[in-house]
C-alpha cells in the first residue's frame, strides 16, 4: 500500500447477498491442498493506487483506459486518519468510472487516540461520497479498510494507539453508510505482531491480504478471521501499462463474473 505495511490453503469463494440482491461479502472457506498456487494462477488482476502512483513529483496522470485493457479492478486511496484526503482520489475516481474497471475507495487506518474509530469512519465516508462513490452503484466494489503499520519518526511501527474496538466501530459505521460489508486489507504478520493475534474483529469480511516475494506461497490466514483471502496483493514493485513507475499488483480469487457480482 502507500505506507508500509505459512501453510497455504486453497479456497472457494462464496458470495453472500441481501434480500435486495446487494453482495455483502465474498467469504473464503479454507480447504487444504498439497501445494499453493502462484499469483499467475489467478486470471483476474487488479491494482491499487494513491498519490504515490503518480510518478515523479506525484504529478503525472494515470492512463486509466490503458490500465483497463489488462486489469479488472482498482482500489483507490481516499483518506487516512481523521483528516487527510489523498489529493488524486477525486480525479482518479472520476476517470476510473469512465472505464470498465471495477473500483472502490480505501482508507488507511492511522489512529492517534485509542477511540478515534468513529472519527476516521466519518472522514472516510464523507471523502468517498464527495467523489461520487455510493457503494451500491454498478461497478462499485465494497469499500476497504486498510490496517497495517504506520510511520512514526521515519520508522514503520505498530500503531501504539490501535485497539480492536476502534476497528469494530469503523467497520460498523462504514457498513451502515454504504449498506455493504467492507473489505479489509491487512496481513497475517501484522495481526500477530501488532494485534496480539486478535483478528476476530475481521470475521465475516472479505480479506485482501498482502504477501510479497513468496514465490508460490499464498498469504497466511489471519488468526481468528475464520476465512482466507479474496484479494491478494502479491508485489509492490509491479509494472502496469498506464501507471508511471512501479507499484502494487493484485489478483482476485475467483472469476470475473464473481467479481462483477461483488460490484453491485
Describe this structure in words.
- It is built from six helices and 13 strands.
- The chain has 264 residues and is of the alpha/beta class.
- The protein has a single domain, classed as Alpha-Beta Barrel (TIM Barrel).
- The protein has an eight-stranded mixed beta barrel, surrounded by four helices. It has a two-stranded antiparallel sheet with strand order 1-2. A two-stranded antiparallel sheet has the order 8-9.
- α3 runs parallel beside α4.
- The two termini are 25 Å apart.
- The N terminus is likely disordered.
In summary, what is this structure?
This protein has 264 residues and is α/β, with parallel strands linked by helices.
Strand order of the largest sheet: 3-4-6-7-10-11-12-13
Indicate the mean pLDDT.
Answer: 88
Order of helices and strands: EEEHEEHEHEEEHEHEEEH
- Distance between the first and last residues' Cα: 25 Å
Main sheet makeup: 8 strands, mixed, barrel
User: What integer value in Å does the Rg equal?
Assistant: 17 Å
CATH class: Alpha Beta
Fraction of residues in H or I helices:
10-25%
Beta-strand residue percentage: 25-35%
Pfam families: Glyco_hydro_25
Keywords: Glycosidase, Hydrolase, Signal
Organism: Streptomyces nigrescens
InterPro entries: GH, Glyco_hydro_25, Glyco_hydro_fam25_subgr
